[in-house]
Structure formats: C-alpha cells, structure tokens
Amino acid sequence: MDLNTITAVAHPQTRAQLPAWTAGDAWLAGGTWLFSEPQVHLRRLIDLTDLKWPALTITDSHLSIAATCTVAQLDGLACPPDWLAAPLIGQCCRAFLASFKIWKTATVGGNLCMSLPAGPMISLTSALDGVCTVWKAGGGEQKLPVVDFVTGNQRNRLMPGDLLRQIDIPLAALRRRSAFRQISLAPVGRSAALLIGNLDADGALALTITASTVRPIRLRFPKPPDTNALRAAISDEVTDELYHTDIHGKPLWRKHMTLRLAEEIRGELLGMARP
Amino acid sequence: MSFDINGRTFPQQPRAGQCLRTFLRDLGHFGVKKGCDAGDCGACTVLLDGEPVHSCLIPAFRAEGRSVTTIEGLGGDSGTHPMQQAFLAAQGFQCGFCTAGMILTCASLNQAQRTDLGSALKGNICRCTGYRSIEDAVLGKINVEETVEAGAAFGRSLPAPAGPDVVRGKAPYTFDTATDGFLHVKLLRSPHAHAKIVAIDKSEALAVPGVHAVLTHEDAPSMLISTARHEKDWMDPEDTRILDDVVRFIGQKVAAVVAESEASAEEACRRLKVSYEVLPALIDPEQAMAPGAPIVHPDRTTANRIADPQRNLAAETHGEFGDVAAALAASAVTFEGTFHSHRVQHAALETHGGLAWLDASGVLNVRTSTQVPFLTRRALSDIFGLPMDKVRVFCERVGGGFGGKQEMFVEDILALAALRTGRPVKLELTREEQFIATSTRHPMRVHIKAGADAAGKLTALQLDVLSNTGAYGNHAGPVMFHALAESISVYNCPNKKVDGAAVYTNTVPAGAFRGYGLPQALIAVEAAIDELARQLGISPYDMRRRNIVKPGDPMLAPPPSEFHDVLYGSYGLDQCLELVERAMQDDRGQPGLSPEWLVGEGIALTMIDTVPPAGHFADATIALNDDGGFDLTVGTAEFGNGTSTVHRQIAATTLATTVDKIRLRQSDTAHGGHDTGAYGSAGTFVAGKATHAAALQLAAGLKAAAAAAWLCDAESCALAGDGVVNGARRISFVDLATLGRGSPFAANGHSGGTPRSVGFNVHGFRVAVNKGTGELRILKSVQAADAGVVANPMQCRGQVEGGVAQALGAALYEEMVIDTDGRVSNPRFRDYHLPSFADVPRTDVFFAETSDTIGPLGAKSMSESPYNPVAAALGNAVADATGIRFTAPPFKPDRLFPALLEKFGSA
Questions:
Q1: CB-CB: which of B42, B57, B832 is closest to A32?
Q2: Which of B307, B474, B485, B724 is the most buried (most CB within 10 A)?
Q3: Does A11 touch chain B (CB under 8 A)?
Q4: What is the pTM of this model?
C-alpha cells in the first residue's frame, strides 16, 4: 500500500553513506512487510538495494547469506551434493504463508528482523547454527547466533539504527542429516509448529523448535534421546508461557503438535541411522 | 527516470512512498486491482521483468528501468494471451475482480507449478468460484458452449457477456475510471467501543494543506436511518446517523476529511482532536439483557422500530404451535444442544467505496459498489431532502457482494461530501475498514430441543436463538426471522416453538450475509435430526425423508406468518436427497490414510424461499433496434452472480434470437423504473421475471405488427429465427424495425416478487479427522440443488461451488476475533484465512429435474442457498467420524484437538 508519510528515500551505496539514523527511518530491503501495513510513524526509507551485497557466498567454511538475499535466490541455490541438509532450504521456503511471488521480493534478513514466530528463515538459519552479523548504529559489528537474535514475538536484539548485514551458516551444519516437520491450521497456512532435527555424524542430535514458540528454541542431545527423554527435555525447556498464541493456533494444540512432531523427527533421524 | 509499462514509456514520477499498484492505476492501468493492499490476495499481480509480483508491495520507484506488464499488456499485439483465452473458455471467474491477478499468475507458472496449483496459487484469493473453474482454465478445459441457434439460449451454458473485458482487465469496476480533480475522503474512526463525543477540534486538521472540509456530526443530517437497504424501510430499526455524536463500536466513523489527496486527508484525520467521554461498553451478547448491562441505544424508543431499547433488544420473536414440552416428554428419543456460529466477513474482493459528483443539471451522481442502487437512491433522496430525479445512483461491474453490499456504508458520506464541497469526491475503504467498520454475519447462539417417536417421526422442534447484531440493527430482525423460518418449516412436526432475540452490543454491526441466518440455525437443526436418527438407528437420509415437507404440506414455523404467498412452484427435495445418497455411495475407499484418521459421513438439507417477503420489485424494458437487435434495460446489478448472462438468455429465448443481439444496460437509476435489488437471490427469480414479461409483451407486439401487415390473426404468427413467421411468410426483425419507424417497438415488464416458490439443496461430505492432530480432510463433497429449470448449467454449477467454498471458509478457517475491548483483532487476510485453492475440495454438483410454475421459464433462484447446508453437513460428518458432536465452528485442528485428546488420548 502507499506509505503516504514517506517524504524521502535514501539510496546509500556503501556503509559510509548510510545516513545518520533518526526517528521515522526504516531500512527498506524487500519491503514486503513494510508496504503491507500502515507505517504512519515513518518519514524516510533507507533502501539497501544499492549496497549491492552479494546474495549468497560460499567460502571454505561458510555459506554467507546477505540480509538482502531474496527467498527466491536462496531457494534457487544449487547446493553441493554433500550438503545433506539442503532440502531444508526448499522446505523452509515453502513454509512461508506467502506465495512464490512474494519470495521474489521478500528477503531472508527481512524475515529475521520481523521476528515472527512463524518466520521460516528463522527456523532454517537457527537450525543450521546460523550467526548474524549486525552493523551497529554507532559503528562496528556484532555477531550473535540466530537463536539469540530473535528474543520473542516480533522482538529481537536490534537497537534503533542497527542493520542486519548477513547470516553465516557453517558448512558443517549443512552436511548434517536433517528432518523437517511442519503443521498449520490450513493445508498451506501459516506455520503453527515448525521443527527441524539435525543429526551429527557422532550421533549428537539437535532439535530446533520454531513457530509454536515465541522464539526459536534449540535443544541439544549429545546422544540420541529415547521417546521419554525427548519429551522430558521439551517439557523442561519449553515452559507453557513460551508457546505462542494467536489466530493461527491455540497454545495447547501447539504444545502437543510440538511434542508429536519432535517424536516424528526423532524416529526419522534415528530410524534411518540404525545399521 | 522513466517507466516502461506494457511497452510504453511513461515519464511520470511516483511519490516517495507510493507502491507500484497505485502508480500503475494513476497512469490508467485499471486492470490492476486492489483486494487487500497488503500482499495477501494477489489481485494486484503484475509482471516485473516477466516475473509475477504483488504490485501493492513493490515500491514504485523500483520499477524504474524495468519492464512492467499489466493485464492490459499481457496479450501483446495479438490482443489475447492464451491464458486469457483459457479463462474465457472455462469461464474461470464470477465477479472477475481477482481475474487479472489470477491470469497473470497462472500465465507465469512453470510445468511443476501447474501440477501443484494448491501451492502455486496460494497467493491468489478468489472469493466467488471455489477454484474449480480456475483449475479448468489452467488445464485448458472448455466450459462455455459456442453459439446456439436463435431462441435456444435458455438452459445452455452460454458465457458471461462481460467475459472478454474481464479477462483483459477492461471491465470497469467502481474505481476504474479517471478521477482527476476528485477530492478524496478519509474517515476518522472511533478508538472506543462506546463513547460520547464531547468536542472535535478541527483547527489543525483544516490547516493541513489540501484539506477542503472536515465533516462531523454537526454537519450531518440528524435523520435516523438504517444502513440496511430493504424495499420496506420498516424491516430495519432507525438507529443510525451518518455521523453521530455517540460512537457505539470501535471503528465507527467520527469525522470525514475531504482533501486534495489521500495523504492530506489521512494527515488531517491524525490531526483531529476529539474529546470523548468514554461510556461503559457491552461486548458480550450473553450479557445484553442482564440487569445493569450498558445500554447501547438508551435514547431510542419502540417508535424507532427497536423492540426494547432499554434491554438492548433490537428485535425478538416468540411463538409455539402445539405443545412442545408435552411432546418432548412423550418422545421416544430427544436431543438437546447449544450451537454457536461465529462472526465471519463477506470479504468481497472489491471493498466498499464510490464516487460522487454534482453534474451541470444539479443531479447528484453516485457511482458505487452496491447490490441496491435504487434503494440507495431512495435513501439519499430522503436523507438530503432531494427530489428523486435529482439523485442518480449506479454501479458498474461490482467486485463481489455476498450481502455485504445490501447496505449503505459509504454513499451517504460521499453525498454529504459532494454536496458540502460542490466538488467531485471519492471514498475507497481499506481492507481493514472492511473488517472493522462495515458488516459481518450475525453471530448466533442456537439452543435446540428436538424429539421423535419410535418410527422416526418428529414430535417436537424448539429453537431458542440469541443473535448478536452489534452496534446497529441493520438486518437484525429479518435475519433472525429467516433463521427461524425455513430451517424448521421444511420439516413436518406437530409441535414447534421458537424464541428469538437479536441484541445490540458495542461491536462491529452484523448485517446481510449469504444465507441470511439460515446457516447459523441449520447447524443446530440438522445436527438434531442426525442425533435423533442415530438414536433410532435410522439412516440420516431416511430420517429426513420421513419428515420433510412434500407438496401440499403446509410450511410452518411459529409464530404464524403474515405472508401467505409461498407456494410449491416446484419441488425437488426428494430428488436432491436421492442424488446425494447415490453419489455418496461411490468410491468409498480411503487410500493412504493411517488408522489415526477417523472417517465419517454427514449430510444436511436446506429449503429457501425464492424471494424475500413483503415485496421485491423489478422493472425491465426492452426495445427493438433498427439492426434487429434489442436493448434490454434492467435494474439489477452484476457482481458475479451471473444474472447478466441469464437476462440475455431469457430475452433471447423469448424473442427467438441469439444472446449477442441483446444489448444489456443495467443497475442505473437514470435508466428509469425500479429494482429492489440483487439480494435475497432475486436476480433471476424476480428481475428475470420482469425481463421475461417485457420480452413476452414485445413478442406480442411484434407478432401483432406482422399480423397487421399480413392481414392475418396475430395468434397464428410465431417468433422464429430473428423474425416473425406465419406459414411460409417471414418478416425479419430488421424489417419490422423499419416498419415500426416513428413508433418503435418497445415493452415493459414488471415483477412484484409474489407469489414465491421454494428451492432446495442437500449437501453430503465424507471426511477424515486425524485424532492425533485434529486435522480434517474432506474426502468427498457432493451437493444436489433444486434450481428449477437451470438457466445456465455452467454458471449455476459455479454458484453452487462458490457457495460451498465460502461456507467451507466459515466452517473450517474464517473467524473474526473480537477482543475484550470490542476490537476486531484480525482485520487482515493473512490473519483471516480465506479459502485458497488448496483449501477447497472439488464438489460434485447435481441438479434436480424440476420446472417451476412461478419462476421465469421454470427457473428458481440459486445463489445463497448452496452456502446454507455446508457447515451443518460438515458438523454431522465430523460427529460421525469422531463420535464427538462439535457445536461451534470453525472446525479447526486446534479447536477439535482438546476433545479428541480427551477421548482418544495422545499418540
């Protein structure tokens, strides 16, 4: 929709050109959320396009995803065969409530910064041990894991003027086996629970709980847990107030679906792991 | 900086925060529609460098240097893209408002996406079709019949006349016209559920550059009205002012700002300083009549047609035939239960809104998105004291209605603004405003008691209804009366009792909605029939057969009706039951379902009077032109109901011509005559009858003229093949027109909407419910409809499918949530889940073979009623599957889950 209070758009090309942050500013990445709701408090958009961050960079150790990388670009990444977790990328992209048309515009960074419980890029990058790089408003950089970046429903660690630059995924995380489960109130609806399991070669299992909880929750098991241990760990870690409630799912149901999907993931990862 | 749109270069520049959608429209590309303006519905889809995007989310400046293709440019030089042709051939649209975005999206799908349309089309909402015809278009199926011979149009699947314009984005809707020089109206809305406006300081608002006027209750006529539009004003209470000094729900309009731009108007709204004296608010309808409850309309009286203002009672009804209590006590089996129907929204993709201007002759013109142009003109004439001939109300193609546009939500403000400023004005509601400030379905609590004897004959039916009409009583009484009428009059039962109360609350008003109360009552009545049958070990089909009315049986619901004009013009309920029962026997397999899935079946039936009571009028005129074609003028509006197609079919059939010879003009008070409106499923049954009458009269005139020329008896002449024949003699309509120069052939037709007939629908579902997750899958969906002689099978099937889809939305997903303060907490599509392609199963549609003695050429109405039995049938199927009677839709997994967990435990 038209943002009628906007009077200016800045187009910085370098970090040095980023304008001094003032109240009424907003970073403009894809704009798919910004332009979807009234923003009467805003006066200026700072367009990140001309910074021309490379969308996806693969180094010896990491997959680096620019905050401005679109969902479609990520979905289109040709992954090396040893990235056993590669299917997660497509699965998480398809977990968007929005359609493929939005993926062409919406960005990975934007999804993290929105910090909605159902943000599937949060699910993906937190399950893959992603680390955020934040350009601090006052200069300098801050690095923090995605699981710590998102602190609650539409809450995160960004301070005014901070800018999410990129998310780095260790290649080791991409080489682990993974399992994905998601449920929503409608066949292609918004995720009410989205769980991802990862199994290390050494048998360590990590479970990432998103969508059903107000923030991503990571559970690590040095050795594969049995049904009861998994259930107990979730019950200990995910207290009732952590379950999200809104029109897309009541907390009691989200809790039970979390337990159910976690057990399915355990079964998938360990069942296939058996000799 | 310039923009390439459909291959043309535009030097114009967008505003800093402007989105591509409005920029494209400003440049005249009206095929780009606004459904939600938030990226959820896809109506604004365009291609950016060949890729589909939602233009409402794209900052306009980002289109610089890239190529933009709108629906107008999709066909390129050849004019029509194959996907546009496919949507025409399949008629993959009804109102057509979503069509441009749908076509652009479908045209860009790759092969993989085409095999998974549920995912590929999740960003495109169609509110009308139920998606089957859209799938047909993508698959290249042809649903429309090619031209048929003269006089044979009725009963054939002829295409909608607007089709070619709809698929090219050229069919004009309300806002699809240049509005240079128009002022924009924006409304300041109440943040309080109940408050008195103490003062409004306009000074800062008026100081905003571009602001022409700020209108408040001090500027508004004091006349009390209802936003509801009915032929008879007495049907609704007088409880509403255009702008009031008391606000009674969050979202009620407080002031209207008229300004040069939307931006100025919005800014001025923010700068208005309103002092409120906040009053106690009544949110819970259960508390409405409790002693000490806040009174929503304390200053009104029964003279305002409010049943009991001091008890928040907008309308009530009570009545009993026989002795229900005694009958229940003596019944072999009984059932008692309480059912809740929630609040849902029409969600027509075109929002309310319109344009108004005074023309050179001093006529106030209002171009608006309405189902009732003539009743709106009458209201404006009354409110502003203008002679009827000084007000013109008309609509172009309307982007969906579903009852939501049988109201006056914007035309009054438009008129006030145009009259005050003397300038042309425009007001277009946002999607959020649609949710918080127009109307909804009436939430209802229905308590039912029912009994039957050992042979399965009903002994007693008792309904006690509490309907929540919200802050205003538009449609409060009629909806409640309707809920308590055909829902039980379809059953023979010696003892019936009803109690109904429609109460005010300080929440968004409820109003007319497809089904008009019946769906809310049916989930209780049809559940009770099933529960009694279950106790008796009788099949749901046989239980109904033993109790439904048959021709000759009185159709009774207490209290005694003052209207006695409902007749069995035809009867196909027995056939409908038979058709559904037979269809449900097919493919009983449940491939690939684990034992966690519980499978069950359920049915429900509905009867509906084909016309609302107390008079529903329509005029039609038809005239022969020099070219042998005809000009047909009707008052009824086209909003996807397909009546434009049907009116041409009726006229062409009666006049022995083809539909292309019938030029239709419609829904404009300037054309003269009267039309009560396109509601109560009257577009075919009432207005079609007027068209039929006009065509018959014209046919008689043409025969008489030919007979006069031939010096023979008019009775011996007949119409055939675009002319009049008598034996071997033939004179074409063209020659007759020449003959008639000086006194052209023309005729009028009128329909009074009485007597009325009855239509029927039966729906059947087979469902699977996962006891571990609460997920519900529809394995089979069948509906049989008794529409009399089906005027246009393709369109009628589409009405049924669309009604089923809309009802499934309400039964499975859609839910307006009102918080404890009375605020609608989910006023956007992403939080109000409309059925998308993936959510709607295919429904097998069957038609009973009947011919109505009252309806035009044997046809009956069929637009609301397919909606009515769906939630009830689904509830019955879920009960059959799970053994649990769920009484409050929507049947979402998280709502089903607690009871499933209790019964079956966790996996």
A1: B57
A2: B474
A3: no
A4: 0.97
